[in-house]
Structure formats: structure tokens, C-alpha cells
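Hi support team,

I submitted a single chain yesterday and got back a structure, but I'm not sure I'm reading the C-alpha cell output correctly. Could someone confirm the output below corresponds to the sequence I sent? I've pasted both exactly as they appear in my results page.

Thanks,
R.
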Amino acid sequence: MSKIDLVTAYHDYFRLIPADTEALKREVYRIRYDVYCMELGWESPEENPGGLERDRYDPVSHHCLLVHKPSNQFAGCVRLVRAVQDPQHPAIPLQEHCGPSLDRSLMDFDSLDRTRFGEISRLAIRAQFRRRTGERNSPNGAETGNLVIHPSQRRRFPHIALGLYLGAAAVGLAEGLDGVFAMMEPRLARHLRLTGIHFRQVGSVMEYHGPRAPFYIDRAGLFDNLRPELLELLHAIEEDLGLPSAVQRSAQG
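Hi R., thanks for writing in. Yes, this is the structure output for that exact sequence:
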């Protein structure tokens, strides 16, 4: 089977940019409001005035926006939360909202150096880009097997969530983090594994907007098994975000 050219498809349809100005951050918060408050009802519109969904982790986060080139619209967003350094507060959203599900025998969270980890969170994709069967009830549109790469999809880029996850991972790598956490459905983690992205489950499944569990991935979990076409895509996303190449650093040892 020939290798799929995801990079060309990505460049044809999308561009991932850092939301590093207040105006661009407002676009992030607007997407999150539309998806989490209005479409899914997961967050309260009353608690997020002005049509912007925000929380206390946003100031310590790096935000990314996905631009849909043909329409020049913002298609989705994701953030990489840097751990809060004050030990009197939860380090990341996962610890605050899903702490009881963490398994200390798998991951001793409290012993981790807060300067060395973060969390991929608040991934959201606008409704018009989640039109396939089963995608409407998921903010990332990727929980029904759509991350599996098929040769018939060579000329388009349907793996929007995958691009956003790689974008957040690229930011974490550039920041020098050892690894990142994410709260996700176990089946999504299984689909990511098919691409070579090996998140490790570090706690039990709990009800949190559907069945979710805490997962963790370190540099080895990303680089040791990532398929060649995904490495190329990661490098392309790093270039769009203006980040140094973790791909090249990994190849150099």
C-alpha cells in the first residue's frame, strides 16, 4: 500500500496558526462557546457572557486555531495547558475535574514536576466540519473511527481532530515538556493508536460528558511508533506554527 500524502491534503485545505493575540484568542473562545455551550450544552451560556467560553486555565495555555483555507473560516481550536505552578491549586483541568479517576499505581500525579507536563484540552471543531455520521455529538468529530487513514481519502484531509492533536503536541514538544495528559474516550485513544500515537490510560473510565478516562503520552509514545506520513504532517504543522522541528531533533537522537 502506498503512503498517503497527508501533508499535501493538509496544505490544500487547512493551516494551523497560533492564537497569540487577544483578537485570535477571542476567536478560540467563540468557537468553544458555539460548540460547548450552544451545540452540546456542556457549559452554561449564562456563565460565559459575550458568546465567549473561557476558564481559569486559559491564561496559562497556548492556543491554536485551524483555518479552513477554501472558506477562510476558523474550523476548530485546541489548547495546550501548561501546569499551574502553585501547589495549592490543581495543576491542569484533568486533575481538577477528573482527579478521582487517576490511578496512582499507573501515574503518581503528585510526584510529577509541574514544569514538565501539560494537558491537551478544549479541542473543538465547528459543526459544519462535523457532518459525517456520528460526529455531531462530539466536539472533536473523531470518536467514530474517522482517524483511520484510508487510501481512498488521499485527496482530502478529513482528520481534523488528528491535526489539532498534533498541533497541541508540537507546542508541548517545543516547550520542552516530558509529556501531556488528555481526557478522552478510550475508543478515541484506540483510533489514535492506529496512527502510531500511543496514549497510555492512567486511570479508570468515568462519566464526564460521556465515558472518559485520563490518558498520558510522553515523547517516546509519540515518536517511537508514529507512522511516517504522520511525522511529515507533524513537521508541516510545526512549520505553520513557527515552531522548531521536534521531528528533526528526534531523528538526531
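A quick pointer for reading it: Residues 6-251 form a domain with the Aminopeptidase fold (CATH 3.40.630.30). Let us know if anything else looks off.

Best,
Support desk
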